[in-house]
Each structure stands twice: as C-alpha cells, then as structure tokens.
Amino acid sequence: LNGIRDTVTALRWVQHHIAAFGGDASRVTLFGQSSGAYAACTISVAPEAAGLFHRLILQSGPCFGGPPNRGWGPRNASYGFQVAAKVLAAANVSSLDELRKVPAEMVQWPASTMSDPKVAPYFSGYFDDPGFLPEPARDLWRAGRIHPKEIIVGHTSKD
C-alpha cells in the first residue's frame, strides 16, 4: 500500500512525541483530502492503526464507490500484482531485491494505467494488501470495523 504504511508509522511517531509539542495523544485527528481521503479511509480500518488516532475528517474523497475501476481508492490485490509484474519487467528484473538496486529515476509506473480509457484519467496508486488489511477496506467499513468513532465528511467542487 503505497504510502499507507508510512502514514501509520507517522501516526505512531505522533503518539510517542505529541506531548513534547503540548498535544494530547488521546485527541489525534487524521485528515485526508481527495486521494488522501481514500488513504485515510483505508487507515481507519487497518488493525495496526487502531488507537493511533481518534477522529477522522474525509474531504472530497469517498471511501469506495464510483465507476468500476475508476477511483483513487485501493484496487484489488490481483491488479496490484499485475502492475508489479509490469514494473519489474520494464526494469528488466525479476524480484523486489533486484528492483531495489535499480536507480529510482529508472523505475516507472506503467503508462497503461494512465492511458487506458478503462482506468484513465483516474489512477490508483495503492492496492488491497492482505498483509495490512484482513479484508478489503470497503468490506471492513460496511461491517462497521472503523477505529475512529468521530468522523466528519465534506466535499469540494470540481475535485
């Protein structure tokens, strides 16, 4: 999950250090706008994020829905594996260990994800990860397995 785990790591840091800034670890709010709202939705049902924040603000980015395969939210794991295979092939490597040795500027997201009319102009930079979420985020939300109990939802026009 592209950046999602980084956000959870940052929330852990906040929990550990917030008092040094005069903050209250029991009053942390996570905010996401547009694709950040999708990310916040995913984090809000992740078991490892439980207790790291207590309020959630979602601005102009629904947690799921919209036209099939055309949102900023997470795509399924099989699509993620397909994209990963394309990234590896384009870099002429066959494993993540080999890919880590490739200069970052040479690692490119497959152009098809931006030019395929079934996907473009929308883009999903992260995928359901069974190692992070026990079920797809959409299913966890529908089951009410949301960590923060205080949520504000808003929107902007033309986002």
Strand arrangement in the largest pleated sheet: 1-2-3
Could you state the oligomeric state of the chains shown? single chain
Rg, Å, rounded = 17 Å
- What summary fits the major beta sheet? 3 strands, parallel
- Number of helical segments with 4 or more residues: 6
Strand content: 5-15%
Percent of residues in helices: 25-40%
- Indicate the overall shape: globular
Mean pLDDT: 84
Class inferred from helices and paired strands: alpha/beta
CA distance, first residue to last residue: 23 Å
Low-confidence runs of at least 5 consecutive residues:
none
Taken in chain order, the helices and strands follow as HEHEHHHHE
What is the β-strand count? 3
Written description of the protein model:
This protein is an alpha/beta fold and 159 residues long. It has 6 helices and 3 strands; from the N terminus they run αβαβααααβ. A 3-stranded parallel sheet has the order 1-2-3. Strand 1 (29-33), helix 2 and strand 2 form a beta-alpha-beta unit. Helix 1 (4-17) packs across helix 2 (35-43). It is globular, with a radius of gyration of 17 Å. The two termini are 23 Å apart. The relative contact order is 0.20. The model has no long low-confidence stretch (mean pLDDT 84).
